[in-house]
Amino acid sequence: MLNFCYPQAEQKPSQLNLAQLLALLRKIDHLDSKQLLPTLEQQLDPLESLSQEHYAQLRFCEQLFSNYCLGHKLAGEIQQALNPLLLIMADLQLNNAKWAWQPHPFIDLLANIQQHCIGWYANDNRASQRFLQQLQQAIAKLITNWQQDKLDYQHNSLKVFFEQHDARISKLEQRVIAAESGALKAKRSQQMATRIINEKMEQQLLPSCIQDFLQNSWHESIILLLINSENMQAEFHRLKKLTETFIWTFKPYDPEDNDTQQRIYRVIGHLQEELAENLASLKHQPDKLASTLATIESQHLRILKGEAIERSPCVLLDNNPLNDSHTKISGNLLKKVNQLKPQLWLSHKVDGQVQAIKLLLKLSDSQQLLFSNYLGVKACQYSYEEMAYKLSNNSITALPHQCRIMQTASILLEKLLSAQQQALQKNLALANEKKKQQQAQVQQRLADQKKALAEAQALAQQKQRQQERLAAVRQPELSFNEQQKYSLLLHKLNTGGRVRFYRNGQARECKLAAITKQASNYIFVNQQGIKDCEVLKQELIAQLATKQAEILDNGDHFEDALSKVVNSIRNRK
């Protein structure tokens, strides 16, 4: 199939064998592009060329390498630095055409490159330029080891470079995580605390002192409790329930409703202790804690005594609407966010500019995502909700994080196979069309020959008739003596007589079969007894006179008499 899809334009008298080609490959130490064959052909003698099989294998290898670089979305400068690896890939392809579908350390090497280079993009940063330069140097050493047949996939310059890079970036990323994780959790805790307060105070009537307590001391305490919790979601629901119960105790109720009154007694009895335990913001301010609890207790006593207390509508805290609990996010969008794994690279589009970012930290409790760039520096952070929207509008998309050389090779082969089938179908259609044209031409030639033969026969018959008419016209011109002479000859001609006719340079002998009653028509048959012609008497005289006919034998009177008897019997019937 490869030979069909990649035909060589010209094959020279001398073709390199596999050993010669591999040796020539190892003499090349640098490639400026993804085209290997032009560089190889420059090394050949004028009368040398590659075999068709080797040429097709290398063309396939070039296309595979190009598709690999483009499909894995590596930066152009990185692709340029990786071009020398095409030499190693060509070596593998020539020795084992199925290497891309089998476990091989070179595929692991490509995966390592993909993992470390996917996030790189060109800028004026020194660290960026240093990374590219060190990558080029590591690949150059790798090629040198390959040329000397000393390539070790487990311990090589490229692997050492990536390990050193990982160690440096890991330290930077840990600093970012340490600095940002606490801030992210604090930010999320504040949003969750505000959500609790606003949800439970909305459309409620509460004393102003209780409103002040909820939006200050209690709000701050919820934030601290969420920050220090190991399970933010569980703590969130616990504090949400406690806040709801606390606000419920200040709702107006009917004094005659004994069940409600008894329930309020029971709740208030242990509520003070729960508040004291959870007022984290006042733990180090015992005087303010006691004063706050006393204010709450005094309000509860007035309620228990049935005294009227002044209530006013609650004013809610300011909150970011994007992070509000009332913002509805579909489960499918959040599912995509939940499936994201740390160390995953993504393409981030901001104001038309595309940058690669890596998911550095995923805080499930605080619902926050922290991203860094390839230098280990913080790039951005988003909540789960924000990330869900960005994934849905494709402003953030996942980048390839694995080496997909097998898939790339399979796709390329499928395209080549499809192209081959289309070409074969086209050639078959052309061959069928050519065959139809040839058949049509043969049929046309046969028809033309048949037509020409018919025209020739018609022309010959026409010429014969013209000659006969000419003879008939000339007949009156014969002299009286000639008329008498040839009439006498015909008079002697009896049935069974033989006459030789001359036409178109050919002679044929015929036998007189019968003479009509008026003796005006002479009927002749050929040697097989089949009628040959019927000639008028005057025409026959003219033919004898012009040497177109010659009487060879006058025939037998007996046969003529027998003919007359037969004719007489026929006439009687």
Automatic annotation (TrEMBL):
One Pfam family recorded for the sequence = DUF1631
Protein source organism: Dasania phycosphaerae
What does the record list as coiled-coil region(s)?
421-473
Q: Which domain of life is it from?
A: Bacteria
Q: Which UniProt keywords apply?
A: Coiled coil
- Tell me the protein's name: DUF1631 domain-containing protein
